[in-house]
Prior knowledge:
The chain is mostly helical.
Amino acid sequence: xxxxxxxxxxxxxxxxxxxxxxxxxxxxxxxxxxxxxxxxxxxxxxxxxxxxxxxxxxxxxxxxxxxxxxxxxxxxxxxxxxxxxxxxxxxxxxxxxxxxxxxxxxxxxxxxxxxxxxxxxxxxxxxxxxxxxxxxxxxxxxxxxxxxxxxxxxxxxxxxxxxxxxxxxxxxxxxxxxxxxxxxxxxxxxxxxxxxxxxxxxxxxxxxxxxxxxxxxxxxxxxxxxxxxxxxxxxxxxxxxxxxxxxxxxxxxxxxxxxxxxxxxxxxxx
Length: 270
């Protein structure tokens, strides 16, 4: 295990260990625990909904809007995720997150962000109205291959999230910090693990989950193209924040590591 990954693991273990002996403060403790239960429950539900819906090519969902109005409803569901998700990462968005929970908003920022993102994904994948058109459905060997590729894409996403700081990505940092009455301590700029190969492995892995499905429909194509476009464009905004936060360290890293497609050249990496 490399130094940065070991640091991630130690920080996470320290956060979890501290949760078993929090300092006094009934209101703070209850709030932290409620947000912890909420974020991880909704996060898990969102992941399961996304896996199930895309594995079926968006043919199974709870949406019942009649056509052609369903096209408008689906478009709204599809666009609300990248638009709000990106806005909440801006300075005005961060201020809004901080104001959502009076007294604890700044500490719970990562948790409320993860809750909102999870609710957005739940809405997208549960409320989608299927078109009923199936272009291609994998069978036999092709089903086994696509299923394996789909599973590997999700494992890649999990690995990238760990490399970036799983406590931030999962929303645990906020409520665990509040529980212990400490200021959230964010991990440094990720450069280890998958981040040695490309600068944005989380976005790339997220996009790959949309391409490796065993059922293709017009619905799945719309989801794939929209979310892939988001995954290619959104990191530009992220890199601006990193440039302001890390300065020359990020510029050196950016010159050394490709944006989204590995170069596989020796001698690369910070």
